[in-house]
Write a structure and sequence with these properties.
666 residues, alpha+beta, eight-stranded mixed beta sheet, 20 helices, 22% strand
Amino acid sequence: MAKKDKIPQYDDSSIKALKGADKIRLRPAVILGSDGLDACQHAFFEILSNSVDEAREGYGNTITTTVFLDGSIQVEDDGRGIPLGYNEAEQRYNWELIYCEMYAGGKMNNNDGEGAYVFSLGLNGLGACATQCSSEYFKVISSNGVTVSEMNFERGEPVGELISRPIEKKDKKHGTVQRWKPDLTVFTDTAIPRDYFIEVNKTQSASNGGIKFILKFEKEDGSFETIEFFYENGIKDYITEMTGEDTLTSPVYWSFETSGRDREDLQDYRLKGEFTWCISAKVNALRYFHNSSFLEHGGSPDDAVKKAFLHAVDKRLRQVGKYNKNESKIKFADIEDCLVFISNSFSTKTSYANQTKKAITNVFIAEAMASFFKEQLEFYFIENPADGERFLNQVLVNKRSREKAEKTRIDVKKALATPGGSVMGVEKFVACRTRDITRRELYIVEGDSAMGSVKLARDPEFQAIIPVRGKTLNCLKSSYDKIFKNEIILDLLRVIGCGVEISEKKVKGNMAPFDLAALRWSKIIICTDADEDGFQIRTLLLTMFYRLLPTLIDEGRVYIAETPLYEITCKDDVFFAYDEPEKNAILSKLEGKKYTIQRSKGLGENEPKMMSQTTMSPETRRLVRVNKADAAATEQIFDTLLGENLAARKEFIFTYGSRYADEADI
């Protein structure tokens, strides 16, 4: 019972309330979504959004973001200026309401027609307050064309009084400048990446045609790198930039405006939108903006696009008899794979999934858009027969490719599946005894003759063998259908035991699942002769791993067994040299003695003792671990040597071929 005395008291005095800036500083995730870098980024977006709202209402046409070396950020616009003075109705200063008070701002009654904004990204009066309170310092300078006012804050608290002065006659400038430094005591990380600023300014420019966005980065010498973003025609220019000439159909542009309500007993609100889309065999993207916020997770517009396009395309396919007899219906994934669609909508009432504004949930918006898209698509197929035909054909190509990939997945799973996870039925596979996977090694050897020597030289306790019979398939050039009909490849995959993984987009996730935990071996060792044929087989095997099992390379499970290039005999001593420098070093030690030197025999001709010493015994063998430090370079050389790029292969042989020419017999 003594332990009860140590339990903290929980009574009426235990309840605490966060006050002032601590509401944000101690709990940033409540407003900004987290306390990490994404929250710091969202704080910047909140300030930028206020300038965007102002410009879109017709007040100003340029917004400048400056990123300083010390981590501080500045957003400047040429709008009407933020009112910072005394508010008679609220009996408080506006700087306090905007920057220190949550749920205060000029956008609370947009839908009533009485607000200062109609379609605004800011809704709740939280963004400016949250950003100010989470900053080391925050400074705002606001000019309305008559007076200029300045207010300063530090860590959420005001510093000094509001400073106001008349603007000189020669300077009738108006707008707002806000500069702040995110506080590392609030966020776990404040180093906002350069690419984030670029992407946000770019997408804001695309969704707000006619407004110029300027982005400046301070450099070490004090000067600034400047990047400008301007889309005169908004999303029309954006889709052209995204797709270039890689389109199967001409871009379509739609727009509409309507009003409605999310529920019968709720108030109507206004909705307008513009949309552009096309079909491409190389590019696909679904981009949704609402009140200028990029909807990363979509929500209502995404629901509308999926519902409408699937309905309209399936209906048209049936109308014109494009489906084969008894063919299954398309899925939206078949459309999405070739669809480039940009939605830019605005509403006077918006239900965001949360304050980070990455999705909207308005029922009316989803229903109104879906109805509009269905109607417009019906007209589209009638009025654009050539483009419509290309659209339908590409969707069917996508559908049938998907179904073929799914069939391949099923076939491969059947082909790789063996009773109890065993490798029964794999021709000439020689197993090892131990069940300890951390010790087991698999040797992939070149042909039956090499297998005989390796089998006699191995330690049967932990070393298993599988021979490669005949020429290994080139997995870089071959289709997946051809690869998984090749018995040599299938036998290797059965023995390896962990399935396959595919990186190509069209079949990713549709193949037999890769499971590293199912791998039966601690080491997979490629063991081939040190000649041209051996090098080719080794390269083809590495190509198989690179394309079908890249994780095994990443995890360091694939090795190459180095085999000697030279055998040097001096009386009763035999020395093995694996390359020219090693040969020369051995010969220098034998200077003055009689010796014989010969190129090493093929693996099948080697004595078991020699094979054990040079290739099999962990104490004396030499293994080279295969790595993929530069996957792009690896793919390039594979493509050069084994792919379809004949010109590159000829150039490579012309440049480097002499290095691989046969040496004269010694």
